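FW: tagging you since you asked about this chain on Friday. Here's the raw sequence from the shared folder, copied in full. Didn't touch anything.
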Amino acid sequence: MAFAMVTAAVEQTPTIDEPVYVATAEVYLQQRDLRYNPEHPPLGKLVIASGLVFTDASRLDPDFVGSQSALGRHLLYESGNDPGRLMLWARLPVIVLTLLFGLVVLTFARDLAGSAAGLVALAVYAFSPDVIANGSLATLDVPAAGFLLTSVWLLWRARRRPLLCLPLAGIALGAALATKMSVLAAVPVLMLLGVLSVWYARRTPGLTIRERGRILALGAAAAVGMALVAVAVVWATYLVVDPRLRWTQPENVPDIRGLRGRVAAWLPFPEPYRDGMRIQFGFEYDIWQGFLFGRLYEGSLWYYLPAALLVKTPLGMLALWLAGAVTVLTVRRLRPAAPYVLVPAALLLAVAMNGARDLGVRYALFVPMFLAVAAACVIVLRRRWAYLVTAALVCFVAVSSLRTYPYYLPYSNEAFGGPSKTHLRLHDSNVDWGQDLGRLADHLRRHHPGERVWLVYKGSGVPSYYGINASNPLKAPLAEVHGLFAVSDSSAAKADGRLAALLDTSTPVDEVGHSITVYMRR
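HL: got it, structure written out here
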């Protein structure tokens, strides 16, 4: 897994979101300023910043004025920095975290079902194409999901050692909240799990109703204490960036009314966090375009994420997930683990399915993490056929994952044609997030040196930096567009008007990284 993620980190050019996070992290280091990227809390970007301290990115202009996207472009391409080296050092801390979360998966499954189950869970996690793909990027999705998993694992352990594990669970929950605000939906569930853990830790046979009430009251107090620890962690991350917590509300913060507005106003978080929540709520009121199974649509589909997970999860892994979930629910000794392993992931998936943005399975990365733990519980059946089937499915997962190397971002399973066909069914961060601009440059140098190139690229990279001197076919008369014509698959998925006409009169001749298609137009 480490080899796959480091390889991806070295070979891939910046994806769409990464330059914003990396540049914001550099602003944290140099200027102690919170003004950029307020829609996401600081911790994930502080993790990224821990890699940037080993670079010479100090050439960021302290007087730069512009949007956060422009800031990212300025840092990577306009300040004399080496974007490849900068991105590698920004990605390495996330890679390390992703590997550490694998140890949490292993330990959680071992606690539930023994050492063999721990190894099965680790194998399922380590070969997950979605975890590898997103764990190799300087983004926030894997850290947020991993911190949440860690908190739930500690809550499970709190059933035996509540005084030690509940505060640690609060720290891990706070880390998740300080990375992505979408984790907020899981807080009530984790507080209930805290009460449940105290109940299991303190109960004894023959308790009176009054004694049971005392234990529940103690559990409620412990859950509130855990939540307060999480709130303190969120405050601490903001104070690490700026101890004076200077903040001026940005102009793009919308006026959110109703229940969402009251939640953003009442939560005991720093004002920058609450303004970030308002920005996120504002995104939910926007109309976004989606693409699923060849259909371009506006708005969101409630079944988008389950369908995308069906496409982008290895078939053996899907079978193990289902078998593991059924085992957890039906085997008596595992049933107490169901609220810990299945409920948080199910709740967050339901919330994400209700969201406005159908942009990728990265919004549901907690699913492969939690269900890797569930999948391993099949071992508990202690039947020879269960061992053989589990081993065969794990091998199937490994082969499917290894076959897609090093193109993990556009992975789809064999039932849907593999990575080369993903762009026919999904778009955006499921397949093409701007990661293959460097590979396109290498392809053109090897196979089409000196030829004129037309390019429609969806991403944050700068083509000219990589030696691609391309023209924009959307700004030229159709009659002049001849020869090589490279198009990001996400742009092709959403093509209409002029781009659709160009694609209809062009012939695909090659593909780069399963995310950019090269056409020839006569």
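FW: The chain has 22 helices and seven strands.
HL: agreed, and Strands lie at 289-292, 295-298, 453-456, 470-471, 483-488, 507-512, 516-521.
FW: great, closing this out.
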